[in-house]
Amino acid sequence: MDFSLDSWKKQSGQRFQRLTERLQELKNSGVPYTVYSFLAAMSLWPLVEAAQAGQMLPVAVALGSVAGGVGGNLVAEQIQRWVDRGGEPTETNIEADIAQDAPTNPELREALDTILEKLEAIPQAQAGLNEADRQWFGQTLRQELSELGSLDRFSAVLEGTIIQGSDLQGGDQSVVGSQAQRDMVTGEGHAITNIEGDYLDQRRVMTEPNRASLRLEIKEKEFCHSFPGLPPAFAKECKPSAYGFDEDGLPCWASLRVRFNVVNTGGERGELIWEIDPESTNLPDLFTLDEDKRERGRIVRPFPAGKFAPRDECSVEWRLFVEITEQYQDPNLFASALRLLDTYEVGLRYWTKDIDGISSNRYLPIRGNFQGYREKIIELWKYDGFNELAQLAQSDEFE
Asked: What is the pLDDT of residues 260-279, one digit of tens each?
């Protein structure tokens, strides 16, 4: 039978049921991220089997429909490595690789999170567990997701897996903690005293399904030449021509323009907070981030910037302005360096702020190349009469 999205969902559902068989092994393993890596491995196992059977193309198509282009490609490449490694891939080998790679590869983790979410891995896996095992499963997975920075995404699914059960006389009823009285009241109205209310309140807040939760997905990105109009704060003195150059032909600034799709999966209004991560940002020496941080990123649409309604989904345009490094502010040196530009990476960390506070941060890498930027600069130099600079940027006769 040909592999498809439907067959993937059916087969992965069968794999999730193996949690009852593997539970004791997972409890005793002592390996970090043991539950998360199990769920991810069971999600991917049908893809591995299909790839071994020569159906890598249908696998890639199914991945693309679930995890998107970049995420789907990353997972497809990993599956191909498992198939090509030699010997039969095993569940434990795949779990070990995921436990090692997921904490350090944000793009891969984002793709795995999306797959777990769309395959409904968590509810399917815990469906066959008894109360005690569900308790362990929920606590362990919650801790792992918190360390991975993915807890907000799955908090609604995990609601009730910790504070519940016969020990609390409430079965699956809701539980509310009172910090002042340190009492607990179950959904049936029974009061249980001497419970640390602040602990319960903390758990309730962490698992509140209605909390705002913003997620970003890159739709378009472009490294741009300076343009006439409102300049960034550090370039106020520059008076660009109609083509964006100063009187010597040097660009006044540059910017990375990104269009995000922003989704608020929660039931409360949320505010987007972000910062550039300098350690994971890799720009060529030709450019430097604004030192006073006034232009470390600006949401230019929508207004008011960064605030999103419950269950809302919208497009946001964001610009990161960069300066031309001082050592390249000679137009000839700039043109020579322009020829050598290759790729860039900007690391973006972001949070959701709502009435209960700020969520754990998420990391989003923005990667691209300078080909379009270089071609645009050369084209505009020619229009603006700076033909020598255009020729220099295209020449192979310099180092």
From this structure: 888 887 778 888 888 888 88
